[in-house]
Automatic annotation (TrEMBL):
This is Pre-mRNA-splicing factor ATP-dependent RNA helicase DEAH7. Residues 84-99 have a biased composition (Basic and acidic residues). Residues 110-123 have a biased composition (Basic residues). Keywords: ATP-binding, Helicase, Hydrolase, Nucleotide-binding. It comes from Tanacetum coccineum. Signal peptide: none annotated. InterPro entries: DEAD-box_helicase_OB_fold. Residues 11-79 form the DEAD-box helicase OB fold domain. One of its GO terms (molecular function) is helicase activity. Residues 82-123 are annotated as: Disordered. It comes from the Eukaryota.
């Protein structure tokens, strides 16, 4: 952990590359399915993600415990990259629109200044 510094994405990538076969996606209310074999599973009540307040779309787990249901234990939530790219694209689009507006304003100022100079030369 110390070699990654504050960048926890490196650690998440290492966990995902090791436990890729234990990746699960959200199917319904509190129910996940394994991405590779479709086996239904649930967050274990002792998991830190269980009481998170929202349900992550994707998780990676270390092991399954069978009681009344298949429970995932030692889970880590994943952020879906497509969603991050969409958010980034929206932010980039907003910045691009802002730059365009600033450019239009600068061109408008330049034209008014140029027109004012022409009017002063005519007088």
């Amino acid at each position: 952990m110390t070699s990654s510094g504050p960048d926890t994405d490196i650690v998440r990538k290492a966990i995902c590359s090791t436990y890729f076969h234990n990746a699960a996606r959200l199917k319904g209310v509190g129910e996940y399915v394994n991405c590779r074999n479709g086996m239904p599973c649930h967050l274990h009540p002792s998991s830190a993600l269980y009481g998170l307040g929202y349900t992550p779309g994707y998780v990676v787990y270390h092991e399954l415990i069978l009681t009344t249901k298949e429970y995932m234990q030692y889970t880590s939530m994943l952020e879906h990259k497509k969603k991050q790219k969409e958010e980034k694209s929206a932010m980039e689009e907003e910045m691009e629109n802002l730059r365009k507006q600033q450019t239009k304003n600068e061109i408008g100022k330049w034209r008014r200044k140029k027109q004012k100079g022409r009017n002063n030369n005519k007088q």
